[in-house]
Amino acid sequence: MFFSKSKNLVGLDVGSSAIKLVELKEKKSGFQLVKIGVEPLSPEAIVDGSIMDSSMVVETIQRINSTLGIKNANYAVSLSGHSVIIKKISLPAMSSDELAESIQWEAEQYIPFDINDVNLDYVPMPSREGENLEVILVAVKKEKINDYTSVISQAGKAPVLVDVDAFAVQNAYETNYDVDEGRVTALVNIGASVTNVNVLSGGTSVFWRDITFGGNQYTDAVQRELNLSFTQAEQLKRGEQVGDYNVQQIIPILNSVSEDFASELRKTLDFFTATSGTDRVDHVMLSGGGAGVMNLDSILREKFGIDVEIMNPLRKITFNESDYSPEWISDVAPSMAVAVGLAIRKVGDA
């Protein structure tokens, strides 16, 4: 379910602050953008990754479908947070049939939920003959999957694939950037309430963690310091003038939160290097709505002493400039990493 690939899908990123949609068409030369859009979502609709107001989410999905004129009925969605468990496990060498038979029993030892309450998927990693078999194991609570697939169904579309945010971002990255086999890259996707970290060694995903820290921390800090509403603080954070305030006046507030974020990310990357046998991270690639916070990339660059870059998940994807202006595409691109990664996926039989 999480790794299947087959025919063209619409990628739908149901986030806690906005719903983002991308539809692509695959051509011999690569991908072409068919549809792209963002629809804001009230902060009360999804809290800590849980859908609190399904009617509002359904209406927002219907609105973005209607605005963009989406005809394709096949949708992909992804999840992250506490209901998602990703583990790399090591098993004795065995055939694919033996693995299929034993994976549920093996998973029970690593998954902190009742195995009957989750959907399981796995992918074996390449290994040499005679070596132990390394397997990426993914478990997601059925209840969480049902919540997200249900709002798509209620919006009149078919949820045919469920992925994980961290893997969707990796998909977008690998489609748009050349993978250096000798480089360790941390993909850091900053959502409104959760940041997904996926560390790649060469082209292989070797570490995953979700951090409960995101763009809302910036908004909350601005709101608190200037006594503004959540909406006003969001507008100001995006660079809009709000009353007598402009974005230049909140830079010290944003920088302070970015320092806190750097500390949280540092703990996660230090844990990776301490437990993986890899002594370094060479490169940080930022994506998500929080990636564009003023000075964040330069603060991380200074703190970590490594290359920090903002991802463009539409870098190698062609589009018609009569449909979308290059300036708008450039502005929204970093926040579209999950939706692009999902749209690259294909309809499978799972």
What can you see in these coordinates?
This protein folds into two domains: 156 residues, ATPase, nucleotide binding domain (Nucleotidyltransferase, domain 5); 133 residues, Nucleotidyltransferase, domain 5 (2-Layer Sandwich), CATH 3.30.420.40. A hairpin with a 4-residue loop joins strand 12 and strand 13. With 350 residues, the protein is of the alpha/beta class. It is 35% helix and 29% strand. It is built from ten helices and 17 strands. The strands form five sheets. The protein has a five-stranded mixed β-sheet. The protein has a five-stranded mixed β-sheet with strand order 14-13-12-15-16, sandwiched between helices.
Q: Could you estimate the helical fraction of the residues in percent?
A: 25-40%
Strand ordering within the main sheet: 4-3-2-7-11
Number of domains: 2
The name of the CATH superfamily of the largest domain reads ATPase, nucleotide binding domain
Specify the CATH class of the largest domain. Answer: Alpha Beta
Radius of gyration: 20 Å
Q: Outline of this structure?
A:
With 350 residues, the protein is an alpha/beta fold.
Write a concise keyword list for the protein shown above.
globular, 35% helix, Nucleotidyltransferase, domain 5, 5-stranded mixed beta sheet, 350 residues, alpha/beta, 29% strand
Topology:
Blueprint: E1 7-8, E2 10-14, E3 18-27, E4 30-40, E5 46-47, E6 50-51, H1 54-68, E7 74-79, E8 84-91, H2 96-108, E9 118-124, E10 133-141, H3 142-154, E11 158-164, H4 165-176, E12 184-190, E13 195-201, E14 204-211, H5 215-226, H6 230-237, H7 251-276, E15 283-287, H8 296-304, E16 307-310, H9 326-332, H10 337-344, E17 346-347
Parallel strand pairs: 2-7, 7-11, 12-15, 15-16
Antiparallel strand pairs: 1-17, 2-3, 3-4, 5-6, 8-10, 9-10, 12-13, 13-14
Helix pairs in contact: 1-3, 4-10, 5-6, 5-7, 7-8
